[in-house]
Amino acid sequence: MMEAQPMNETILEFKGVSKDFPGVRALDKVDFDLKKGEVHALVGENGAGKSTLIKILAGVYPPTEGDIYYKGEKITVRSPKEGIDLGVSVIYQEFNLVPYISVAKNIFMGREPHRKWLPFFIDYRRLYSDAKEILQSMSADIDPKTKVVDLGVAQKQLVEMAKAFSVKASILVMDEPTAALTDREIKELFRSIREFKKKGISIIYISHRLEEIFEIADRITILRDGKVVETMKADEVKDLDHIIKLMVGRSMTAYFSREFLKEKGEVALEVKDLSRKGLIQDVNLCVRSGEIVGLAGLVGSGRTELARAIFGVDPHETGEIYILGKKVSTNPAKSIALGLGFLPEDRKAEGLALILPVRENIMMASLRRVFPLGLINPRKESRLVNEYVRTLRIATPSILRIAKFLSGGNQQKVIVAKWLSTQAKIFIFDEPTRGIDVGAKAEIHQLMNELVKRGAAILMISSELHEVLNMSDRIYVMRGGRIIKELPREEANQEAILRYAMGGARREDSESINA
Amino acid sequence: MGRVQMMLKRYVALFLRLIAVLSIAIFLAFVRPEFLSVNNILNVLRQSSLLFLLASGLTVVILTGGIDLSIGSVLALSACVMGTVLKTEGMFLGILVGLAIGAGCGFMNGAMVAFIGLPSFMATYGMLWIAQGLALMFMKAEIIYGFPKAFRFFGAGGFIGIPAPILLMFLAFGVLYLLLTYTTLGRNIYSIGANMDVARISGIRVRRTLLIVYTVSGFLAAFAGMVYISRINAVEAGIGETLLLPALAAVCIGGTSLFGGEGSIGGTILGSIIMSLVINGMNMLGMTSFWQSFAVGTIVIFSVLIDQIRAMKFQTD
Amino acid sequence: MPWEERGGRIVNQLTLKKTFKKIPSAAFALIFLLIIYTIFTDRFWTAENFINLAQQATVLAILSLGMTLVILSEGIDLSAGALVSLCGVVMAVYLHQGIGIFGAVLISIGVGVAAGIVNGLFIAKAKLPPFVVTLGTMGMCQGLALVITEGSSIPGFSDSFKFIACGFIMGIPFPIVILAFLVLITYLILYHTTFGTYIFSIGGNQEAVNLAGVSVAFYKTLIYVVAGAFAGVGGLVMTSRMNAAHPWVTLGLEFDAIVAVILGGTSFVLGKGNPFGSLVGAATIAILKNGMNILGVPIPIQVAFVGIFLILAIIYDSIKGD
After folding, report:
1. Domains defined along chain A, listed by start
2. Is the Cβ pair A376, B183 closer than 8 Å?
3. Strands A292-297 and A474-479
4. Chain C residue set in contact with A, beta carbons under 8 Å
């Protein structure tokens, strides 16, 4: 897209910025710059470092090393509020609006115009007219008197943008802004974005929708494994494949090689026409014992929702689930009894009870099976738990250690131990090695390998393409709540998966899955 | 961190409370020598037992992350019915009906929380008033005196010189301790309080467990009522009014966190003893019951404050 | 009026359904009660009864206004009833020591403000759960009130003091005038000041307020202070009406106030609601009790009914769905 505004002035610069978390380096000496009035897209797979970069800019946490320059001066952002004061506004996917007050009040929160001699009394005339002015200048057709709760998703987004504008933000970060929008709404959003550009506001635009990026962005920066691969002008890009190649790169460190079984067993888990309104649609898949089936897709494609529906944590509307050939209506207790185990994505919130000891966590799902009469034999329990600790090499001084104090990798092992102890034969792993150091990753992969060798069936959700390609016998790719493609191992490679995950076709108005 | 050190850490909290008990006792003995009379010490222990019986059910509810504000009124209601029935229909039936009413109120609390999804403080607050209202209606401002000798055993009797309430306290403690430590139900209670989502995903039947927990709380409130009216040999509708705050204080002082998942029934015993010592002390020092309500209110706030500070420190560790 | 912010591009087309959703459960309860009482007794619709009713309802209505602010911010104030007693008691003591009416008003409100500050400190700064804190302050207020009066009441005030509850201004009972004044203040606060906006916002999305740089702790404390001040006014009216300060007669008043607010449509989790609904709710509760008194229903059952209404109101709100 050619620009009318000369964009010479650099407003933001990241120089050599790195961010380390325990066991993993999320950003590695990143150089990134943003010019005044430009739309700069940030592209990369899940875990490439996009949200880490944004959070550092917003003041959620500080960088481990490197400098940030804003309008030429070195800065440190110590809190989200400081970020806003500085001129950085972030629009997250789950908006930060107050539902039962008006749009105008949301926009001017904390800065409400007041009557001349009465400092605490709101001047409604000015409030609404100022709000209307902002909204109109964005070409947004919203009545400022409306309560936010009465707005649709697209409109709420525009209100967030208006908020940013009214605090005189110079940098606006938009995180997956079009995820829930119809085509028409996307056009309106882009119109507003262009208005912002004219006013000299710079926008960092994070998205997976490459076609949209071509339409709205001036420059594109591609991140991979925490490093900047390349920054280029949007009109230098030839086609989708060009970008995808840069996103995935060539090097594939195989930190673990699987033994693939020639003969797979019976179908252990089968799902037919599973749907849940707005989240998953007509999903069909199967997993055999002895195989690991990978489930790839972008954030928001519905993989976790599918897993939760299969396990029975969330209900589903249509479709059937068969475990070991038996049709079941699942709830967690039943699933566990039938031999299905589920390791959730959010380890800290859903995988472990952090304030409980290792022992209690490991036994939580198998108490009913190990002690059917309801009475716990502490010696038997300790023996069992210690065996898992030993087998999985969980680093903990004792089984009574509170889970919170373990490292990420060991916490994950505790969760794995928990599901192993249920004698599950079918596993759903949701992001099994996210945020874990390389050594622990290899151990978990080794474990998964052992499990299938002994006849288990594993459905593995992962956003790390290396992992998906390394470990899977077959790969399903999900997009927009549907299974778009099934790829056998031989046909799968990174570009292919990403291409299916990102898609090429535009969606029509009616197809927006969240409208 | 070595194993010995870790074990010490676990028991440090209980240890501190034991020291608190001793300090208060020593202070009181110093200031009012009559504190150390056998009669008085037995009195304190009897009071602790009564308080503990009420606070024990509350402890179990709080462990799941909820609260039961109705225990005082449920105690009153079940005691009133119990007292009435046992004078006309006999002790056995009286006790049965009374305990059943307590359990029934608890069950309804559980149903509101588990199946309708009401926040526990709202549901049990509503039950507080409903039960109180029913108790007043039932008793019509009368007082019932004079229970049969057999019934009086629970509150006034003894065994080998140990007063019955104290024995019952240890009985209840024993049962609950075993339940919480050595049964899957007990484990599930802690899990639900620690993280309800994880508990659900782990196949724990959360709703059923909550139902049981609130029913137990109601039952224990009725049981406490039974011992109480047995001791004072009378019952009237207002007996539960001032019991909620001390029971809550006992639980909090005992180290059970209002957020759920942390705490122990042993802590509640110590908390009950501490509260009873404090109340006994206030009596000895001549504080009117009016000042005492003030003091108990303050104690509740401060013990929760300390719990909160401890929880926040835990987060940032 | 600004509080009826409607209009604009509303995505939801079903306006009828939306209007229906705005009716608080109090409306249904009220109509139900009126019908029942009309059928079962002829002593309900008399002027004498309505004056009686107005007197009984005023203190509850005043308390409900303050409680609305608290519940809107996702809090609760269990100490309100005891606080009314305490304010009345402290004021009575000073009245007998000779301070004038004006001083009495200041003291009553002042005690309420002080209690509000205590509540606010523990809830807003120490971030303790409101129901525990106000449970504690309830005990403290009740205890203090009993200590000061030594368990009995403080009677006998001047005629000019009696005017507050029994006097008339242009044919309207003075308490109603006071109530109207407080309604005006509440309305202004909620819908015309930034404070009011923050009350809704703290209940609706506290983080949004925080990010905007507004001090959540300060405004939360202010909410409890205002609620305390209202309790002080309530204490004033109640003491004047009974011509004595009783330390225990307001037992359960906060329960009535909470139910009134919830019946009136204020949600305790969403930051949604309005004070006029609370007034309707207060009227409903007052009428409930008034009618039952006429019918000879014993007080305890009345209390039980209030509890049942509360639970029905909550169920109704959750079915309405948000």
Report:
1. 1-87+169-251 (3.40.50.300), 95-168 (no CATH)
2. yes
3. parallel
4. 2, 5-12, 188, 192-195, 197, 200-201, 204-205, 207-214, 270-272
Check CB contact under 8 Å for A109 and C197. yes
Is the CB of residue A513 less than 8 Å from the CB of residue A480? yes
A152 CB near a chain C CB, below 8 Å?
A: yes
Contacts B–C by Cβ distance under 8 A = 129
d(CA B17, CA B253): 8
Taking only the tens place, the pLDDT of each residue in B14-55 is: 777 778 788 888 887 777 777 778 888 888 888 899 999 999
- pTM for the whole structure: 0.81
Chain A contact present for B48, CB below 8 A: no
In eight-state DSSP terms, residue A375 is: B
Establish if C256 belongs to a structural domain: no
Contact yes or no for B6 and A367 at CB 8 A: no
> Do the Cβ atoms of B290 and C310 come within 8 Å?
no
- The answer to whether position B302 is within a domain reads no
Q: Note whether C150 contacts B290, CB cutoff 8 Å.
A: yes
Contacts 24+ apart (CB under 8 A), B82-86: B82/B222, B82/B225, B82/B226, B82/B229, B82/B235, B83/B144, B83/B147, B83/B229, B83/B234, B83/B235, B84/B138, B84/B139, B84/B144, B86/B147, B86/B148, B86/B151
Chains A & C: contacts with CB separation below 8 Å:
94
Which of B17-21, B198-202, B273-277 is predicted least confidently? Answer: B17-21
Chains that touch A (3 or more CB pairs under 8 A): B, C
Mean per-residue pLDDT for A400-418?
A: 87
Number of domains in chain C: 1
pLDDT, mean over chain B? 87
Report the residue of B182, B195, B314 to disrupt the A interface, i.e. the one with the largest count of A CBs within 10 Å.
Answer: B195
Q: What residues make up the domain containing B74?
A: 40-241
* C211–A81 C-beta distance less than 8 A: yes
Cβ distance of A332 and B201 shorter than 8 Å = yes
Domain of C111 in residue numbering reads as 56-249
Residue C144 in domain: yes
**Hey, are the CB atoms on A364 and B183 less than 8 Å from each other?**
no
Nearest to A100 among C188, C193, C200 (CB): C200
pLDDT band at C112 (very low <50, low <70, confident <90, very high): very high
Of B69, B134, B301, the CB nearest to C136: B301
Residue B106 located in a structural domain: yes
Total domain count for chain B? 1
Name every chain C residue with its beta carbon within 8 A of the beta carbon of A142.
8-9
Q: What is the model's pLDDT at position A199? A: 87
**How buried is C159 (Cβ within 10 angstroms: 0-12 exposed, 13-18 middle, 19+ buried)?**
exposed
| pLDDT at residue A401, rounded to an integer | 87
Q: Do A352 and B198 touch (CB under 8 A)?
A: yes
Residue C281 reports pLDDT greater than 60: yes
pLDDT band at C11; cut points 50, 70, 90 = very low
* pLDDT band, residue A515 (cuts 50/70/90): very low
Complex confidence, ipTM? 0.87
In a domain, B277, yes or no: no
User: Has residue B232 been placed in a domain?
Assistant: yes
